[in-house]
């Protein structure tokens, strides 16, 4: 009898959770496979065609386009790219037929009041180098294709043909490696669209900084060098940067962001959880519990995290304080906030100046008011919902 009641209780609560999820989540967007891209050599790591998920705009949003770049780390050598090749981050054959849209992609007005009826696209990430690679040769044994830059061009051509060429409003955004993509391709995206269109860029958790790890090693700089070399990315990085600095440095926003002319909004944690795990303390075994849950950090570890915050704030100074550059930098221990409804706009969403991310971004985009807020140090912000991380996923690879 007790086991039956327990089963019924679990069943009822599971139903409540599912119904709550469905209420908040946006609709499911079907996948589009860009078959025409194959003839241009614009293919995923495994040679399959690129893809995106698309919900068509309507009403006042029919000529507005939000192009969101999927994140998911990078692959820095043949071994890591081969492992990635067999997943959705390396092959369109591993992607599902539909994808749930949430946060900035949500199609419900109450959860995404300013962009819900736009044409909303999520470009799937299957090249492993933030859409910068372009190596003509394909190794006969590995059959790896490094063609991310070609994917970007081919998908944009497809979207322009489907109506984006008539855009009156347009945004390129992205999370993590996709947030870096939105910066690297920001001005390119603007150049594709009508001269009179309002075009802006949003980078979410894409401001990766170049600092030494706690051992004094240049782990992230070495890793970015391997990405750029493996994928042949140099020619697709900002020339204003590569003409002055080593190519791998031009994968770090701090070295090229001041040269971007298109307006940009930055959403980022000052103590981004991915950067703490992989840039600050990538190989420290005694940091395991701390990296998973910041509440388990020792006072010494918290001091080092605060030191990272200071380095992060120093690295963002090239952004400046122009009204064209928006900024929502919180002190919440998380990574990526625009795609997740609980961070974008929901009860309990993080606030800066009493403003959620969704309103800050929209007010900036529509020129209703500028937004340039930097949070106080962790743990000062009571609206933070700090993530407790689990086992690394395929989009959170170890360096």
UniProtKB/TrEMBL annotation:
Chain's role: Hydrolyzes acetyl esters in homogalacturonan regions of pectin. In type I primary cell wall, galacturonic acid residues of pectin can be acetylated at the O-2 and O-3 positions. Decreasing the degree of acetylation of pectin gels in vitro alters their physical properties.
Top EC class of this enzyme: hydrolase
Pfam family, one: PAE
One cellular-component annotation, GO: plant-type cell wall
Keyword hit for Cell wall biogenesis/degradation: yes
Species this protein is from: Trifolium subterraneum (Subterranean clover)
Membership in a protein family: Belongs to the pectinacetylesterase family.
Top-rank lineage group of the source organism: Eukaryota
PANTHER family, sorted: NOTUM-RELATED, PECTIN ACETYLESTERASE 8
GO biological process, one term: cell wall organization
Keywords for the protein's UniProt record, in alphabetical order: Cell wall, Cell wall biogenesis/degradation, Hydrolase, Secreted, Signal
Subcellular localization, as worded in the UniProt entry: Secreted, Cell wall
Protein name (record): Pectin acetylesterase
First and last residue of the signal peptide: 1-26
EC numbers: 3.1.1.-
GO molecular function ontology, one term from the record: pectin acetylesterase activity
InterPro entries per record: AB_hydrolase_fold, PAE/NOTUM
Residues annotated as transmembrane: none
